[in-house]
Amino acid sequence: MDRKHFVIDPIHGDIEIPHWLMQIKDELPIRRMNNIKQLGLKALVNFPGAIHTRYLHSLGTMYLAGKLADLLIQKEETKGRTDLKKNLINNKECLQAAGFFHDIGHGPFSHVLDFVMKTALKTDHEKMGVKIVKENFKDVLEEESIPVDSVCRIITAKHKYPFLGDIINNSMDIDKVDYLIRDSYFVGLKYNFDLGHFLDQVTICGEGNALEEYKLVLEDTKEAKSSIELFLLIWKTMYDLVYHVSASRTAEKMLEKAILEALKIDKGLETKMSDAKEFITIDEYNLLDQVSKSGEFSKKLVEMIKKNNLYSELWSDELREPNFSLNERFMESLRSVDSASEKITHELCTARSEPYILICDIIRTKAPRNILVDKLDKEGEPIQMESSIIEALKKEELTIKVYIEPTLNKKKGKSLAKTIKKEVQKIIEEWKG
Amino acid sequence: MTGKKDIFLILLLLHLNKKVQGRTRFQKTVCLLKHKYQIPFSFSFKSYYYGPYSEDLADTLSLLQGTNLIEEVSEPLNEEMVRYSYRLTERGEDIIRSTISSADKELLTKMKKNIEEIQNIRTAELIALAKKTKFAEEARESPEATGKT
For residue A125, what is the domain's CATH number? Predict the structure, then answer.
């Protein structure tokens, strides 16, 4: 029998490396995840401790997928749902693989590339991830009887059996559990909750042979309610204090603009970032180098980020009625907030004849929804977890900000701050598109 | 009818229906309007816990709440359960009133008639009807996942 292999993780302790991963762990697409920090530029700007990588998070998600699968299988011992139990046993390794590969399509600096990939490259990290897994690891996975299509459908939440996809990609999935605990540990906030207790509150709701209609839910208990409330409070706090914190958010938007400008000049970079085979060669180190070589403007922005000479926040407001007069054309554009903010940026800068001297940023904070409990309603209405804390946290927040280039800020910051809100209001009111 | 976007159609739905009771009911209503009555919503639905569900629709409703154009109201059904309903805010009502043009008359009449039909259907039946729409055919035609069981 093969010897078992483990790595030590600061969050979960010993993590067993499955046989399929032992065979591929040193291949480029996986080694690359070691050169992509989980929180991107946050390590350079606000949180020097946040140097943990996508690779570590992927191992953690794989570990939790296996642990939750074991707990769910154990719960089925007494419930008599033999088909469900068999399905979970058969899919345990699939879930672990999906947990490991779910973020393999992330580019350097993680979410900085989201908008770039969507607009300039017409893809996203999930689609890129699926390509990378299929092109590189299909044979290894299927030799171990792990169907690669099943793994990819779990990652993209399109699996025939939704409860499997829910484990990796839904309101209270184990991806969030891992990144919240891991990120808070590495930034130094150390928010935590009892993982074993939390996972023990998860179960599968459903009856009969139609496994397609089974769902991942929480137990209908006070313990489950307290656990999910704590989970969501940590989620909200991490978004407010870490993920959306102003300085590093500014740096991220600056880098996004640097890459967008670089792509206009450097077609080689565009090809490299669009093709899955080339994409896996890009990491944080070589991307900054390449962007710096693709035009003076991009070079200047990258240098500014490296020296922590960042744009300043000029103005900020809640993006809602009655602060702004929102029409249905603008609302439609808000379904992609990054595109809407890019368009406002463009209009603000065109008026001043200098690209990206001001950067508009719209931040949409959406709490996880669909927190369901193990209980059926006579009318077929899904029963949501009843909690005033959950309801309060579900309320979506939209903030609009404008960042200003430091030299312009020194010269005209004060006077511009007074007029910028009016300009943005006018752009929104007269929205074209 | 072409060219109308989803935000306009959601606001119009709530303008005509005043209050849609239940998150599930809202999802199935939009699914039926799209697939049975050919109202040009662009949301795509997939099979979910209680029939067709669109993540994009849920996301859009959340956006409209966040910007204060619609509101979600909770009503206790009994001691344990709460139902969430959607309605327009005053500002949402203003926007839709000022956006509807004479060119929308045909759409308005059609949607009103469709909504009246849907209002008379109980939620459980609405779910069954939504499952039978073109959405279901599309779902059956999609390639099967290769789960091991």
Answer: 1.10.3210.10
Q: Distance (Å, rounded) from C-alpha A327 to C-alpha B92?
A: 9
Q: What are the residues facing B86 on neighbouring strands?
A: B20, B72
Per the CB < 8 A criterion, the answer to whether B67 and A334 are in contact is yes
Quote the domain boundaries for residue B39.
6-135
Q: Which of residues A243, A269, A298 is at a domain's end? A: A243
Alpha carbon A48 to chain centroid distance?
Answer: 20
Do A115 and A343 form a contact (C-beta atoms < 8 A)? no
Residue B140 lies in a domain: no
B58/A372 touch (CB, cutoff 8 Å), yes or no: no
CA separation for the pair A377, A382 (Å, rounded): 7
Which residue do the tokens 């991806």 mark?
A175
How far, in Å, CA of A363 to CA of A347, rounded?
19
Domain contains A300: no
Chain A nearest CA to B97, separation (Å): 11
Buried b (16+ CB within 10 A) or exposed e, A366-385: bbbbbbbbbeebebbbbbbb
**In B, which residues are within 8 Å of A395 by CB distance?**
65-66
Residues of chain A with Cβ-Cβ distance to B7 below 8 Å are 328, 331-332
Residue B145 has pLDDT above 70, yes or no: no
Residue A302 falls within a domain, yes or no? no
Give the pLDDT score at A141. Answer: 97
Question: What integer best gives the mean pLDDT of chain B?
Answer: 83
pLDDT for residue A379: 58
Count of structural domains within chain A:
2
Whether B127 shows a pLDDT value over 50: the answer reads: yes
Query: Across the interface, which of A150, A332, A397 has its CB nearest the CB of B147?
Result: A150
- Give the Cα separation of A156 and B46 in Å (integer): 13
Q: Distance from B55 to chain A by nearest Cα, in Å? A: 10
Task: Examine residue A274 and state whether it is found in any structural domain, yes or no.
Answer: no
| Mean pLDDT for the stretch of residues A264-292 | 93
Measured between beta carbons, the chain B residues lying within 8 angstroms of A150 are 145-148
The structure's pTM equals 0.91
Please list every residue in chain B whose beta carbon sits closer than 8 Å to the beta carbon of residue A147: 146-148
Q: Are A117 and A39 in contact (CB under 8 A)?
A: no
> What's chain A's average pLDDT?
93
How far is residue B31's CA from residue B82's CA, in Å, rounded to a whole number? 23
The answer to the question of residue A47 being in a domain is yes
Phi, psi angles (nearest 5°) of residue A35: -105, 20
Q: Which of A85, A86, A151, A377 to mutate to test the interface with B (most CBs of B within 10 A)?
A: A377
Ordered DSSP codes for A355-396: TTSEEEEEEEE------BBS---TT-PPPBP--HHHHHHHS-
Residues A231 and A361 in one domain: no
Cis peptide bond prior to A322, omega within 30° of 0: yes
Q: Which domain holds residue A125?
A: 5-243
Domain assignment of residue B18, yes or no: yes
Residues A231 and A316 both lie in one domain: no
**What stretch of H or E contains A231?**
helix A222-238
Query: Taking 50 as the threshold, does the pLDDT of residue B2 lie above it?
Result: no
Residues A69, A203, single domain; the answer is yes
- Tell me how close the Cα of B137 comes to any Cα of chain A, in angstroms: 15
- For chain B, how many structural domains are there in total? 1
